[in-house]
Amino acid sequence: MPLAVVTSLAFRTDVALRVLEGAEVSDRGDYLVVRSPGNPGFWWGNFLLLARVPRPGEAGAWLARFAAEFPGASHVALGVDTAADVPVPPDLAAAGLGIEHATVLTAAQPNPPACSSTTAEIRPLADDADWRQSVELTIRCFGGDESEFLERRAMARQRVTRTGKGAWFGAFADGRLRAQLGLFDAGDGCARYQNVETDPLARRQGLAGTLVWAAARYGREVLGARTFVIVADPAGPAIRLYQSCGFTPRETQLSLERPPSAG
């Protein structure tokens, strides 16, 4: 299943961005192996992309294939190359796999947000101090102690920005990073947003929408993007923000995962 024939817009752009970050992609015919040697703890940098939805009774076989491809992994991550909101066999959930249906939204030209921030400094992350703040912001948003994993992710993103294939934008108040997101060239005129995050103490101030708009201007003027792609939880609050910026639902992204703690 070559990357060129992946039908899922979300996974096609996902894999393109992982390659920009240094991932290796191997074609096994009925699935792709996406491997990030520099960050083995990154679940969705180390996953299988299946050409079709597993059939009933195939859960064990796919888990075995994942284990064979990633013998040292404590997680399981399986993407499915489908654009539709399709049902999955119950044996996948019985095997401990969480089933995620995310909404894929696109826009040809995102609109300015209805509520924008006029006080924050909006700019790309520029130096190591900015990138340290990026890691700290993610920890404030999601908690946990994954600093090594996050530092490796930040280093990979920083390397890509230096190639001119994208930028990581921040909203700063008094020198402190309050919100962030990335936008990268995913090929074929598509620009893909990544990890829209806002400090819990700085929400409802228009920061995320302002960043989405600022990044879109960069995408058109610098990357030459014709289609902007963003993925959201259909039940989460962010999807309403993206729709207010002119994004419309286009596809569903189907993902199956089992975190290390569930192994």
Can you walk me through this structure?
- The chain has 2 domains: 111 residues, no CATH class; 105 residues, Gcn5-related N-acetyltransferase (GNAT) (Aminopeptidase, 3-Layer(aba) Sandwich).
- Helix 4 crosses helix 5.
- It has 7 helices and 11 strands.
- By secondary structure, it is of the alpha+beta class.
- It has an 11-stranded mixed β-sheet with strand order 1-2-3-4-11-5-10-9-8-7-6, with helices on both faces.
- The longest helix is centred in the middle third of the chain and has 17 residues.
- The chain is 32% helix and 30% strand.
Structural class computed from helices and strand pairing: alpha+beta
Question: Roughly how many Å apart are the termini?
Answer: 28 Å
Spatial arrangement of strands, main beta sheet: 1-2-3-4-11-5-10-9-8-7-6
- The figure for the number of domains is 2
Quick one: how many beta strands? 11
Shape: globular
> How many whole angstroms does the radius of gyration measure?
18 Å
Q: How much helix is in the residues?
A: 25-40%
Strand content: 25-35%
Can you give the mean pLDDT? 93
The poorly predicted ranges are none
* Number of H- or I-type helical stretches: 7
Succession of helices and strands: HEEEHEHEEHHEEEHEHE
Q: Characterize the largest beta sheet: strand count, sense, and whether it forms a barrel.
A: 11 strands, mixed
